[in-house]
């Protein structure tokens, strides 16, 4: 199966951060996530329909786009769960066939439930 695209939006975790601090956090998280996904990148302003997000140099702060294999989804969700314990994030999981599911999480139970929903959703795209 081809890679799954997951957009990770953590832009609401700390509204008090200055733009430069949020940029640093976004880039640091991108570098940390590289350990568990096939590819991860910053998201350009043109890729996000909501224009209310803060941006720096054309990139949306607090939003990353990751390519991950089905086998590594659990590792990504576990990483996000430990990294964002108690902080709200949103994810959009896009199946290879173009379908999408939106998930929100803020605690370990939410991440576990989200992971199960994502795996169930993705297994539906594999059925003949």
Written overview of the protein:
- With 128 residues, the protein is of the alpha+beta class.
- It has a single domain, classed as Alpha-Beta Plaits, CATH 3.30.70.
- It has three helices and six strands, in the order βαβββαββα.
- It has helices at residues 19-33, 73-83, 108-126; strands at residues 4-9, 39-44, 55-56, 59-68, 89-94, 100-105.
- Strands 1, 2, 3, 4, 5 and 6 form a six-stranded antiparallel β-sheet that branches.
- A hairpin with a 5-residue loop joins strand 5 (89-94) and strand 6.
- The longest helix has 19 residues, at 108-126.
- The two termini are 13 Å apart.
SS strand fraction: 25-35%
Distance between the termini: 13 Å
Sheet of most strands: 6 strands, antiparallel
Q: Residue share in helices?
A: 25-40%
Low-confidence stretches: none
Radius of gyration: 14 Å
Quantity of strands, as a count = 6
Rough outline: globular
Tally of separate domains: 1
Order of helices and strands: EHEEEHEEH
Structural class designation: alpha+beta
**Tally of separate helices:** 3
Mean pLDDT: 85
Reading off the top of the CATH hierarchy, the class is best stated as: Alpha Beta
**CATH architecture annotation:** 2-Layer Sandwich
| CATH topology type | Alpha-Beta Plaits
